[in-house]
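seq:
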Amino acid sequence: MVGKKREREHGLAEAPPHYYGHRERLRERFREAGPDALSDYEFLELLLFRAQPRRDMKPIAKALLEKFGSFAEVISAPEKRLAEVDGVGEASITELKIVQAAASRLVRGQVRKRTVLSSWSAVLDYCRTAQAFADREQFRVLFLDKRNQLIADELQQIGTVDHTPVYPREVVKRALELSASAIILVHNHPSGDPTPSRADIQMTQQIIAVANPLGISVHDHIIVGKDGHSSLKGLKLV
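struct:
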């Protein structure tokens, strides 16, 4: 009895027998019809089966979506906030973060093997995957060579919910160290709205002013958020 009580207290009580049939049917539908045949909560169930093989994961998957809003926001959510959802423990968080890391590595690979300016959609996909759903502002720089191929992708600063300190001379110094001919600036707006602020525009202009005399081009400054993205070049702000 003590063991059964401990299982219930820690959410380890075995799921009803019919649930294991549900799991296999879900896996079969994924195999035969593909991921688009599954709703977000079903896709989350599939991921969480490995973490808690004896528990009904449907209520947990639905609770995660209710709290965070979408599949992308769930896997990108900070670990501490994920742990606030009843039934989500270390094993479940690890599974979600493995998927987030895999998605980021996949799209980064697409950017690395092409000329960046000829695969702009892949660059945008990578930027959004990397940081669109982060809960604090992050400032990232993509360093390019003379052929506009990616030399390095570096996260320079992590700030607060609405500000990241950026030091133009440090950005350009790093570009010189890497022998970069061009850079693309990227940061996120945790509010979700990617509209550039006056401070964003001014900071970009300051970096351009330092970089240009040294032969380093600033191709763009991309701002990402869960509601989309903005390009300062596209908006003719730089």
